[in-house]
Amino acid sequence: MKQFKAESKRLLDLMINSIYTHREIFLREIISNASDAIDKLLFISLTDENVKMKKKDACIKISVDKDARTVTVSDNGIGMNEKELEENLGVIASSGTGKFRDEVSDGNDRKKKTGKNGPEELIGQFGVGFYSAFMVADKITVLTKKYGEEKAYRWESEGIEGYTVNECEKESVGTDVIMHIREDGDEPGEYSQYLDNYTLKNLVKKYSDYIRFPVKMEMPHSRKKEGSSDENPEYETVSELETLNSMVPIWQRRKSDVKEEEYSDFYTRTFHDMEKPQKTIALSVEGNVTYKALLFIPGKMPANYFTEDFEPGLQLYSAGVMIMDKCKDLLPECFNFVRGVVDSPDLSLNISRELLQHDRQLKLIRDKLEKKIKTELENMLKNEREEYEKFWKNFGRQIKACSINNYGMEKEKLQDLLLFYSSKEKKLITLSEYVDAMKENQKYIYYAAGETVESIDSMPQTEIIKENDMDILCFTDKVDEFVADMFRNYREKDFRSALNDDPELTKEKEGEEKPDAEVVYSDSIKYLKETLAGKVDEVKASKRLKTHPVCLSSGEDGLTFEMERYFKAVQPEMGMKAKRILEINTEHPAFKAFDAARIAEPEKAAKYAEIFYSQALLIAGFPLDNPTEYTDLITSLWV
Ligand code: ADP
Q1: Is residue 74 in contact with ligand 1, taking CB distance under 6 Å?
Q2: Computed over its alpha carbons, how large is the radius of gyration of the chain?
Q3: Ligand 1 pocket mutation pick from 33, 211, 325 by most atoms within 8 angstroms of CB
Q4: Of 248, 400, 480, 609, which one's alpha carbon is 20 to 30 angstroms from that of 516?
Q5: Shortest-distance Cα residue to atom 7 of ligand 1
Q6: First vs last C-alpha separation in the chain
Q7: pLDDT in tens, 360-392
Q8: What are phi and psi of 396, to 5 degrees?
């Protein structure tokens, strides 16, 4: 007897012992697996002439043996070999169930806190594949023979104790899952109901109607006995093999005929996401290429979205046969988070994995899907702002990053989908909203980059802009400054970093000119330059600082501090560094104190200079080379 992996044990335990109202989903799960297995074999048949099975032969059969208390689901799909049996049924490692496992622990916590969405509910929403059969069965036997292999195997388990795998006899390729139904407990029919043909038929209708291959079962029918008279008919019961499902996949149905819930169900099951999709887009196109598409915007960002593991793409079907699970060519990069299905009869079946010859068609589909997704997002932004902000939180970064692809070629297309945090409005706004709200005398779209909105908001450099009642876009994402850099302008308004000095704003009104601080305090400024040589590139009297004594800026052109940090993270060996300009508020009492000390107490003045510098660094978000030295310096002023 082989042991299940520890994690599978926990899940099994949950399955078997949960008092569970959605037990009936076990059938859906087993049928889905059968359907997937047929998909896999049909896929091979596209390129392998030896596969004799054609789509029309595909069949999933349910049989019931009331005496033996078994329900068997048989398929003529690809089957499993010994190794696959071990890997697939010995451990819960598959995509869907793996995720479920992660959420089960969350679910337990969640249930404690909120009283809802515990693991039981999650099973209902999501299904957990093969293992769910243990909710109704106390023993499961799997007989399977893989396509192209000689030997067949029998996998058997009575649950938690483990499982056995042995060679066995099986004529045809495919898999039989034999579920031995539990004895009823206190409730009559609790489990026995699953041995009833009508119950099973209804379950297929309810959960598996869309399955594209026929699900068949021998159904009892009442028939007039041959030879019995019409006036006085006698009836007998005969069995007939009946197809239980309509086989119309959900994307082939009219949108108005499909309930939102059915779409969500299909999404969560097909794409193994616990969360409902945020938006469902159904599309039926006739023309140069004819196809149906069903697209989903996920309700949350996949955990691996920004990693190499993430595989974008849509499922591609041709006349009901899946030819690709993740067809990348159907989605533009900016919308690569979209999940869904495209089904087109125009892509011939023998195209195999080489889709090259269909380039043109795929591109036509892709362009159309891109337009459609964009329009949907624009509408969401216009009409369901909150929803859009949720979407933006999930995938906004992807759209921003792509808006600067190809040297700005994508700008026009994506610029109106972007949101940035407004320092004035304290919420996310579009560029268009920013420009609409610009002051008459405002020339630029101001932005400031920093770690957090709070830190940006309190930057001394931004004071003057705020004093002029102008808004600042807070750039907290690494990519944001690159967006401003690549766009250069929006609706003819140039982007401008609020951290740079803006002569427009600091221009003195006529008649109010003050003596030039650079001249008045030239000695002090020269002193600072010399004392801080090697640390700062320049020292200047600031016209924009109001209440703060110092700040650090990087000058008009070249690298900004945020860019420096970015490059330091991705290409540290380049040693890219922004210019460091120490701006000093000559009106500030701290400066006055320094100015006086320079003559009277030179030792103190040197300390003040260091402190100015360190403070400017801190405000700009840079770490100090030696924090201890800095704190010692400060304390030395009063001891
Ligand atoms: P999931 O379907 O989410 O991957 P399951 O636990 O339902 O998880 O199944 C695990 C794996 O076992 C499947 O991915 C598949 O490889 C294999 N499997 C299950 N049922 C069948 C079947 N009827 N025919 C072939 N392979 C199957």
Answers
A1: no
A2: 34
A3: 33
A4: 609
A5: 129
A6: 77
A7: 888 999 999 999 999 999 999 999 999 999 999
A8: -55, -40
